[in-house]
Recover the amino acids of this structure.
């Protein structure tokens, strides 16, 4: 057996553990999170002297061609400028062949952590609306996220909502609005086990509980904005119930969920793509109506529910009228006696 | 594996598993216990020997006898079965047992009989001596830190050897040679680029990248498998992995 010097031991330790950022402008600091599709590290941008979050994707075995496409996609995604989107602002390849994305390091809490500390439904739904707005913006620019889940949504220090992890997003249209072919899209398997070239139809990407049925089945050519709408519905389910989606309806998990809220959730999570909301903006608008106690498009109310909702919304007016009526009745009786 | 470090032939007799040897050391089955003991001995004899040389200032002959005696005694009395993962890491436990054993030996003024009996293990003490000569402990390094440092070195040395064997067995020697050229090059050697390796090995640069990445993944897997063998619980495994590689493992 060959004796290993301290420097070799140190090098072996680094290749077996930490990512090798040599040749890049980043210096490894620590691991932040590990997911099915990659690991996020905190690193120092040594040129700009600032901390960044770097996602290193799990699959190193990719061809030059696929790597080029992946970098091109990242460049397109990096153009998304929206206050609710943490864009990829750098992309590259590590010496070991793995592709990485550098993102702004966001200080805050994840949506699931936020939900654990905030029970107020209205607050949660306002945050959800902000998520929908960011996703709607990306959709308008031809980009779908494909891995929307509470763990990829951050609430910043000032309460701002940021959608993270656009590193595996799919470009539906480029700037010229031309629809890309499937071959232009790299799909990474969640366990990072597949080799290059296994990116065709049938490969699954995303997080099962939050992904659409077509995404679960690996029907890549079927993926469009409505897959993200499904995932948004799943996030909505989580915010209503504090649980990741299951086959049970939200009201079964949490009886306090209103019927209209459940209807919005179920519409967004329809198994049939055509039955879902047409856009994230439509979903956001329905949530907005729910918050304003207006009728939502996803739910047909009966007469009693209409009255109840109207009374709920105009409680002050109703109380005023009731008080007036009571006073009138009181005067009528007192004047008779 | 180097024949000099083969021990009692046990590893040839039984398939190597990644189950915890620490847990298996408590088995009622003598064969299982023997195999577990072999794993522990393989993983620890060298750092233990070096530690005895440094901490107990033993000369090489005494250090050999003490190391052999310690492991023989531990096997006979099944000491490793009494390890409790809640109290300390196995490494700390073993070191403490070793200290206790040597202290007792010295107290009793005994000198272990060299060689010859049933529990004489075939260990390559000469290589350990060479390594001590090549790389002495720093003055400011405590014996405990020295033990840990040498254990880490030994773990990686065994893992590299296992990787080589695995590549050989699966006809992937080119992958191992690339790994050797890039990740195991001597300290004085100039750094090589993936492109120059591609030229040397007549491969595409992307192939070099992929081969190296895959071989490193194998290496990591081997290290973690070895670690799992010598830890008793998942928690201890994760703690040791963090200490060894600085990563959280599932």
């Amino acid at each position: 057996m060959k004796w290993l010097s301290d420097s070799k031991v140190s090098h072996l330790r680094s290749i077996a553990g930490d990512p090798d950022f040599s040749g890049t402008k980043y210096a490894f600091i620590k691991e932040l999170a590990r997911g099915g599709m990659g690991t996020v590290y905190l690193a120092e941008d040594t040129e700009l002297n600032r901390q960044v979050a770097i996602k290193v994707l799990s699959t190193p075995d990719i061809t030059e061609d696929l790597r080029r496409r992946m970098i091109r996609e990242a460049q397109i995604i990096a153009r998304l400028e929206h206050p609710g989107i943490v864009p990829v602002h750098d992309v590259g390849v590590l010496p070991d062949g793995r592709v990485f994305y550098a993102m702004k390091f966001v200080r805050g809490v994840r949506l699931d952590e936020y939900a654990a500390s905030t029970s107020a439904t209205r607050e949660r739904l306002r945050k959800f609306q902000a998520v929908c707005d960011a996703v709607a913006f990306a959709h308008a620019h031809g980009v779908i996220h494909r891995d929307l889940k509470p763990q990829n949504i951050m609430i910043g220090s000032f309460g701002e909502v940021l959608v993270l992890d656009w590193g595996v997003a799919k470009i539906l249209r480029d700037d010229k609005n031309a629809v890309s072919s499937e071959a232009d899209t790299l799909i990474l398997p969640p366990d990072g086990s597949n080799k290059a070239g296994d990116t065709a139809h049938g490969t699954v990407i995303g997080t099962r509980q939050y992904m659409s049925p077509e995404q679960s089945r690996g029907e890549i050519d079927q993926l469009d904005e409505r897959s993200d709408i499904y995932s948004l519905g799943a996030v909505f389910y989580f915010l209503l119930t504090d649980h990741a989606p299951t086959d049970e309806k939200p009201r079964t998990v949490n009886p306090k969920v209103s019927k209209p809220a459940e209807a919005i959730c179920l519409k967004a999570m329809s198994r049939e793509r055509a039955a879902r909301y047409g856009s994230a903006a439509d979903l956001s608008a329905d949530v907005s109506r729910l918050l304003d106690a207006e009728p939502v498009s996803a739910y047909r109310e009966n007469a009693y529910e209409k009255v109840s909702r109207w009374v709920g919304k105009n409680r002050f007016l109703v109380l005023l009228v009731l008080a007036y009526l009571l006073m009138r009745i009181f005067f009528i009786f007192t004047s008779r006696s | 594996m180097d024949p000099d470090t083969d021990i009692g032939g046990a590893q040839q007799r039984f398939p190597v598993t990644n189950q915890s040897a620490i847990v298996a050391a408590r088995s009622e089955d003598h064969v299982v216990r023997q195999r577990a003991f072999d794993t522990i001995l393989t993983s620890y004899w060298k750092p233990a020997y070096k530690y005895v040389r440094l901490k107990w200032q033993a000369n090489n002959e005494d250090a050999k006898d003490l190391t052999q005696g310690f492991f023989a005694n531990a096997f006979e009395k099944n000491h490793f079965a009494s390890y409790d993962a809640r109290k300390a890491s196995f490494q700390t436990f073993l070191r403490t047992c070793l200290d206790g054993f040597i202290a007792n030996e010295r107290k009793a003024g005994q000198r272990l009989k060299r060689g010859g009996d049933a529990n004489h293990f075939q260990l390559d003490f000469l290589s350990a001596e060479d390594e001590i000569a090549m790389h002495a402990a720093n003055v400011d390094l405590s014996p405990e830190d020295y033990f840990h440092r040498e254990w880490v070195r030994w773990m990686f040395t065994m893992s590299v050897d296992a990787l080589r064997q695995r590549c050989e067995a699966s006809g992937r020697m080119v992958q191992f040679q690339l790994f050797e050229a890039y990740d195991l090059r001597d300290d004085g050697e100039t750094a090589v680029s993936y492109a120059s390796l591609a030229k040397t090995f007549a491969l595409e640069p992307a192939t070099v990248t992929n081969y190296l990445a895959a071989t490193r993944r194998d290496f990591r897997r081997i290290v973690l498998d070895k670690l799992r063998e010598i830890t008793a619980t998942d928690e201890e495994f994760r703690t040791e992995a963090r200490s060894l590689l600085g990563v959280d493992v599932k």
User: Anything to note?
Assistant: The two ends of chain B are 29 Å apart (CA to CA). Chain B has one domain: 3-245.
